[in-house]
Amino acid sequence: MNWILGLAFLGMALIVLIETGVFIVYPSLSPYTSTPVSGNPAETGTTIPVITASDTRPMVSSLPPEISQEQAITLVREDYYRPAYSVARIALTDRYAKTPLYEIDLAPVEGLVAEQNETVFIDATTGDYYSPAQESARISVEQAKEFARNAFPHLSPDRVKIRFSDGSQYALGWEFTLMQGDEKLVQGGLAADTGDLKWYAFPVLRKDRPANPSISLDAAKIIAEREIRNRNGVLPVAQTDARLDPLGMPGEKIAGKYVVVYTRIIRNVPCDSDSLVVTVDSVTGKVTRYSKQWILPENAVVSMSPPAISREAAAGLVEREARKRYPASAGSLTIISADLRWMDYHNPDQIIPAPGDIPLAWKVQFDDAVIRSQQWPNPGTGWVDAQNGTLLDLYYRH
């Protein structure tokens, strides 16, 4: 018992004092409790907590869980790897669902990961992750699994891992992994309410990868366009970027990946946020990553009329305000571009824009000598309302 120093009951709560001196309080509301762990069950493989009934209240089910503690930990270990995380506690609970859940507390190992302690729940009947927030989703776990399978008919997974994200850390929706044995075939995300495919990513092996591409950028563009058309039909988009990005660690001499970006068009004006990005392997010609952000209601943009503010006036305003931010760099400041955009920045999980909320604006990008000297230059960006000339936003950092 080198990692748990003491246990105590206080009212209806279980207080655990762990080696770091941190108290963790768990409400003792379930008829299930766990006994102390000897060693670390995930790393030592020694004693797993014994789950027992703590009172005489009816349990969720009189049948034993179909998923064992060892299986639950193994499932979690597919996502929370050793040695970055240790399993601090596992217990059965019925606090959230109509079926028993394994409540598993994961502690990040200091210096290996930056995250805080995390608690995850595994359905003790199905082995699926569980989140209380998924009860508000309009499609069920099983429906989400079916959507994930149907999105990749050429694959033959033997199981689908599914997990609901409540939007607090990642985008709201279902995150899935198609598995074949221990192999992750593809990972991706689905819209919470519709099951629409939002993104996916295939693993790319770097071992024995050639140094140079086998297909051209033009061929990659055709492949990317075909993927978008096959998954969405015809969409109002314009290709705004196509490039070869490196793959692997800096200095690693292997063929890279083609990234093709398509921007959504509303009333002949590009959105700045809504877009599709397709990544094509430069060696195999296969699509390895796809992401679609298409969240802006079309009626959310302002009524279309010719901009009252010229490109030159918008660039001049941004330049004047930027010079005030860093006066010492004023002499080297250079305008890179100034283009009309819909300023479609909002959190779709928290805000639904009302009709006419999204302004037509000039997006002005610029840099200076300090930015240009950086290893990965990040230009400044200013936004100017195209109708009234108001400076809406200015991002400029050294």
Q: Secondary-structure element order, as H and E? A: EEEEEHEEEEHEEEEHEEEEHEEHEE
User: Poorly predicted ranges (pLDDT <50, ≥5 residues)?
Assistant: 1-62
Cα distance spanning the termini:
50 Å
Globular, elongated, flat, extended or rod-shaped: what is the shape? globular
**Radius of gyration, taken over Cα atoms and rounded to an integer in Å:** 26 Å
Mean pLDDT: 84
Q: Helical element count?
A: 5
Biggest sheet architecture: 8 strands, antiparallel
Query: Total domains, how many?
Result: 4
Strand tally is: 21
The share of residues in helices is: 10-25%
Specify the structural class: mainly beta
* Widest β-sheet, arrangement of strands: 10-11-12-13-17-16-15-14
Beta content: 35-45%
Word description of this protein:
This protein has helices spanning 69-77, 141-150, 217-232, 311-325, 369-372; strands at residues 4-10, 13-18, 23-27, 32-34, 51-53, 85-93, 101-108, 118-123, 129-130, 159-165, 173-180, 183-190, 197-201, 237-245, 257-266, 269-281, 287-293, 334-342, 360-367, 380-385, 391-395. By secondary structure, it is mainly β. The protein has four domains: 4-130, no CATH class; 135-201, Nuclear Transport Factor 2, Chain: A; 217-294, Nuclear Transport Factor 2, Chain: A, CATH 3.10.450; 311-395, no CATH class. The strands form five sheets. It has an eight-stranded antiparallel β-sheet. A four-stranded antiparallel β-sheet has the order 6-7-8-9, with helices on one face. Strands 18-19-20-21 form a four-stranded antiparallel β-sheet. A hairpin with a 7-residue loop joins strand 10 and strand 11 (173-180).
